[in-house]
Recover the amino acids of this structure.
């Protein structure tokens, strides 16, 4: 059957890479949330809000994202990725455009945090599900390349938004970006589709069942009964907590701790985004090659070293240290956005993937919540962001222990 399937007139073996390209473009728009730190200081100056309050739109966005991602899994199977991506894209754009009219930080938390976050939650799973179905033979690489757009987004959007903030103000910037996202997301969505039922790449043989779940594929109920799920879920919380906390404060830390000027701090966010984007295909490939457990342990080692570097040695003029540590945080977060979906498909199968990964992805929202609280309270209570890195160092050690104990193949039922 593989020989008969065509994608835009090309054989499926080569044409399926087009799906990754358009999924990458969708994620470039959705991942603009990772440039949030360029808004923090302008918003504090505009509304005289606290560091914790200025992080609330970012935190709520990621929580709404994580909540709505699993809720759309069933609809994705029913209506297909094209329609769901269009709906999500329109809601994303609406949230950004309404944010340009926000009169205070609480209103921005509603428009940007809730509405735009819901839109991203609806659209995010679509390109990933498309990639996993077209690439059952290269799940890690395909997912990593698809979600790399989410991680690389800040490389493009951070300097663009900083420039727009300088020339138009921070509120108008939300509206301009909303219009841009509306056009790109709707157009990109039109190219996404699932392969025909039963399709598989030419010459590829599915691996034998290796989980405790029935008939190779776990449904949601079966998955929740496994220790592998809970280990993956807790590891995902730790990995995203450290990474999202760092992403949300990248620019302020550069300016306040290392004493960089705003333009340099924003430019470095773009550099960090390269590592976030690159971490996805790299760790996706590693997850395929060395197992989810070993890929997870490697990510936690990176988080631990970066946390100790910032907590113990960061300060004025320590630019190289700051760059190395934050590249590590962004790299590890990008890694988890490939480790988790790949591990979900590998351990629990692809038949119920959209719903299953939606449940796993709730860990992302938990990481966003606790990461934002830790960073905001460290700044408001201790007067600096650097104390926030002690908890992430400790959590990285805990993550290594959990990964070693739980992220391993489950014995098949007899």
């Amino acid at each position: 059957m593989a020989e008969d399937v065509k994608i835009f007139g090309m054989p499926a073996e080569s044409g399926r890479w087009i799906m990754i390209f358009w999924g990458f473009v969708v994620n470039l728009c959705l991942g603009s949330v990772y440039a949030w730190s360029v808004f923090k200081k302008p918003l504090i100056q505009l509304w005289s809000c606290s560091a914790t309050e200025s992080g609330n739109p970012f935190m709520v966005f990621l929580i709404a994202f994580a909540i709505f991602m699993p809720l759309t899994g069933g609809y994705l199977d029913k209506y297909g990725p094209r329609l769901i991506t269009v709906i999500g894209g329109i809601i994303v754009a609406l949230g950004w455009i309404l944010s340009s009219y926000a009169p205070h930080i609480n209103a921005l938390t509603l428009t940007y945090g809730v509405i735009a976050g819901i839109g991203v939650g609806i659209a995010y799973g679509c390109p990933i599900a498309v990639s996993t179905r077209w690439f059952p033979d290269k799940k890690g690489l395909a997912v990593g390349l698809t979600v790399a757009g989410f991680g690389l987004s800040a490389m493009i959007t951070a300097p663009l938004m900083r420039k727009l903030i300088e020339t138009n103000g921070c509120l108008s910037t939300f509206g301009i970006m909303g219009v841009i996202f509306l056009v790109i997301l709707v157009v990109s969505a039109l190219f996404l589709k699932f392969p025909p039922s039963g399709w598989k790449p030419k010459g590829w043989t599915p691996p034998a069942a290796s989980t405790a779940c029935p008939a190779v594929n776990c449904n949601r109920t079966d998955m929740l009964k496994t220790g592998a799920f809970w280990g993956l879920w807790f590891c995902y919380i730790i990995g995203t907590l450290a990474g999202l906390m760092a992403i949300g404060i990248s620019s302020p830390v550069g300016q306040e701790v290392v004493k960089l000027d705003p333009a340099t701090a924003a430019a470095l966010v773009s550099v960090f985004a390269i590592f976030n984007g690159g971490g996805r295909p790299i760790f996706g490939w590693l997850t395929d090659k060395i197992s989810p457990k070993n890929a997870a342990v490697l990510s936690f080692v990176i988080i631990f070293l970066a946390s100790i570097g910032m907590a113990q040695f960061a300060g004025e003029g320590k630019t190289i240290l700051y760059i190395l540590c934050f590249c590590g945080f962004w790299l590890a977060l990008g890694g988890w956005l490939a480790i988790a979906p790949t591990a979900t498909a590998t351990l629990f199968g692809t038949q119920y993937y959209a719903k299953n990964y939606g449940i796993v992805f709730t860990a992302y929202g938990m990481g966003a919540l606790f990461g934002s609280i830790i960073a905001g309270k460290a700044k408001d209570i201790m007067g600096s962001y650097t104390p926030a890195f002690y908890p992430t160092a400790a959590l990285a050690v805990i993550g290594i222990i959990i990964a070693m104990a739980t992220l391993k193949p489950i014995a098949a039922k007899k």
